[in-house]
Amino acid sequence: MTPISYDAQKCPKDRPIPGEKAMKGMRGLCVTVRASLKEPPAQPLTAIGVYGFITDGISSESVLANNPDLNTDAGQFTIIPSIAAGQKEVTFEFIAALPMEKDVAQYDNGIGPLNFNSLRVVSFPGGQQFGAISPCEMDEFSMECEDWENENGAYKKAAFMVKSNERTKGR
């Protein structure tokens, strides 16, 4: 996959930020990327994982919270909901973690130069994909959960991985 264009803006306040704990003290920006696929899919795909390395074009530091030191391809950093058969371009969004002192106002695209390396999409048919985890799922009695509920409404428990997976049939 090859990026064509990208721009960044401040994330909406109600948007869950993946890697929020790892990004403590950093600025999170929502980056929208338009990219071309080297090989358009022969069949429609859903819940496609996006993998790779993204670094700041000036400092060469990772802007992905799940791979701050660039030692490993730490996993997918976003999901594309669907790609149609034969589709040649995709758009996806990810959260960039930048130092607070970086002046992004000087850049027309809202973030400055980024380098994309080993960017690829991977589809796991029938597989589970990651999703945002609220503080209430981690500890429903925590202060963070209380704050989350004040912003998002009452927390409702759900049975995710096991009962939502067709392959396990609720086992």
From TrEMBL:
It comes from the Eukaryota. This is Uncharacterized protein. It comes from Corethron hystrix. The lineage of its organism: Eukaryota, Sar, Stramenopiles, Ochrophyta, Bacillariophyta.
